Amino acid sequence: MLGTLPGAYVTPTPPIDPELSPFLVNVMLNDQGPFLMMVDTGSSRTALFDSAAEELGISISAETTVLVRGLDSIVERPVFKGIDLDLGPFRFDDIDLVGLPDREPPNFQGIIGADVLRDLVMVYDADKQAMIFIRNEDVPANTFRRWGEAELIPPPSGNETYGLAFVEANIGFRRVTALIDSGSALSVSNWDTALFSIQVRILRN
User: Fold this and answer.
1) What whole-number distance in Å separates Cα of residue 126 and Cα of residue 88?
2) Is 142 buried (19+), middle (13-18) or exposed (0-12) by CB count in 10 A?
3) Count of Cβ atoms closer than 10 Å to residue 195 Cβ
């Protein structure tokens, strides 16, 4: 239904690999490409790997660094400044992409983070293996009235969310704060939370 709305962009994704996020889409950078990038709601910033930056012909801004917040780490990284990103019909002008060292295996060339995704509603259609994107303001108010929903809550630290989405989840007999992370192929938990699950306690012992 969402894919039929005016302004919606539907794009196929590569076949799901259990070892990878299935949410991989092509984007254009500075009108070049396409570049295959992972849709990652668990990353606060959009990023590009070094080899893709070399292919694009751009260089790091030596005087500028940013903090990148993810599931289990906060790291300081240099940036590529003033890049134009096109995701289908949606253009994001003059954004800063975080520079990341190349990964192995090189299954994709960068990450689309919350700084871009916060302006979009996205849905993954597993049957069609496609991602659907539409701008927030183009979605009618009653579109999701029959969908399940979860209230977004502040992160455990009480700090800024930086565009990341946190919800309450039940693990064992305990309600915990969980990060919605489309860049992770698995659901994960720390050991303190896992102590509330009998099966995990047995596995750990």
Assistant:
1) 20
2) exposed
3) 15
Among 61, 20, 39, CA closest to 185? 20
Amino acid in the structure at residue 201: R
Question: Which of 27, 43, 85 shows the shortest CA–CA distance to 183?
Answer: 43
Amino acid identity, position 104: E
- CA separation for the pair 202, 205 (Å, rounded): 5
What is the number of helices (H) and of strands (E) in the chain?
4, 12
Residue type, 205: N
CB 106 within 8 A of CB 38: no
Question: For 164-197, how does the pLDDT look when each residue is reduced to its tens digit (9 = 90+)?
Answer: 888 888 776 778 888 888 887 777 766 666 565 5
| pLDDT digits 0-9 by tens, 9-24 | 888 877 656 566 668 9
Instruction: Characterise 63 by phi-psi region: left (phi > 0), alpha (psi -120 to 50), beta (else).
Output: alpha
Per DSSP, which regions of 88-201 are E strands? 90-100, 110-112, 120-125, 130-135, 166-171, 174-179
Cα 165 from Cα 146, distance rounded (Å) = 21
